[in-house]
Amino acid sequence: MQLFYHPELLSNTFQLSGEESKHLIKVLRKKTGDKIHFTDGKGKIALCTIQSISQKSATLKILEEKVEPEKPYQIHLGIAPTKNADRMEWMTEKAVEVGLDKMILMKSDNSERNFLKSDRLEKKAVSAMKQSLKSVLTEITTGQEFGDIITDTHYESFEKFIAYVDESIPNHLFELANPKKNYLILVGPEGDFSPEEIKAALDAGFKPCSLGSSRLRTETAGLVAIHTLNLLNDIS
């Protein structure tokens, strides 16, 4: 199955323009009458047929649709952007494929980069969602302060973890997390979290966790955390 993206699947017919239309018509050489699956990135998947094609757009009609059941858990990752923007784009793509619900790019004391273009990351997320046949688009927020994240009341009911370099941390994330819960896990920058940030997070109810014996790059640690929580739920 090939999956396309259109953010609004509210009426029986809709117009597709821009990159999605170009890919549909010029690259895949789809024709009038062909059937294609679309997602709105909010859980809906619709089987559509091409009604008409012009040079720069296509009109599609929804034939049938379904809403995918919601997962019984959510994974939110707070991560400090790496100095190399390409590495964060790569991580975004892989995080969506593995199964991340929300990525929060945060500012921390040792951050080497405080700003990243969210539009480039969102394009990577859309592409990865389609490639991995997911119906929900990963939410991406940028520029969040570390202090604001750890005190956000939205996360009061979440299981909250902070991963940092400390060989004395005895428990792996897989051992600490409970299945079928909502999770917020924080991964620090290349210089790790500052002692003050770690203390503030622990005081706010975050549990320190290990991601294994290897010292991981920031983007690798983020992916390991996401995969670990998905694996825990898949086998439970």
Task: Give the N-to-C terminal Cα separation.
Answer: 28 Å
Q: Determine the strand fraction and express it as a percent band.
A: 25-35%
Shape, please? elongated
CATH level 1 class label of the largest domain: Alpha Beta
CATH topology type of the largest domain: Alpha/beta knot
Described by strand count, sense and barrel closure, the largest sheet is: 6 strands, parallel
Instruction: Report the total helices.
Output: 7
Strand segment tally: 11
Cα-atom radius of gyration: 20 Å
Question: How would you briefly describe this protein structure?
Answer:
The chain has helices at residues 18-27, 85-98, 118-131, 146-150, 173-176, 195-203, 218-234; strands at 3-5, 13-17, 35-39, 44-53, 57-67, 74-79, 102-107, 139-145, 159-163, 182-187, 207-209. It is of the alpha/beta class and 236 residues long.
Can you walk through the features of this model?
With 236 residues, the protein is α/β, with parallel strands linked by helices. It has 2 domains: 3-67, Ribosomal Protein L25, Chain P, CATH 2.40.240; 74-234, Alpha/beta knot, CATH 3.40.1280. Helix content is 31%, strand content 28%. The protein contains 7 helices and 11 strands. The protein has helices spanning 18-27, 85-98, 118-131, 146-150, 173-176, 195-203, 218-234, and strands at residues 3-5, 13-17, 35-39, 44-53, 57-67, 74-79, 102-107, 139-145, 159-163, 182-187, 207-209. The strands form 2 sheets. The chain has a 6-stranded parallel β-sheet with strand order 8-7-6-10-9-11, with helices on both faces. Helix 2 (85-98) runs parallel beside helix 3 (118-131). The longest helix has 17 residues, at 218-234. The two termini are 28 Å apart. The mean pLDDT is 92.
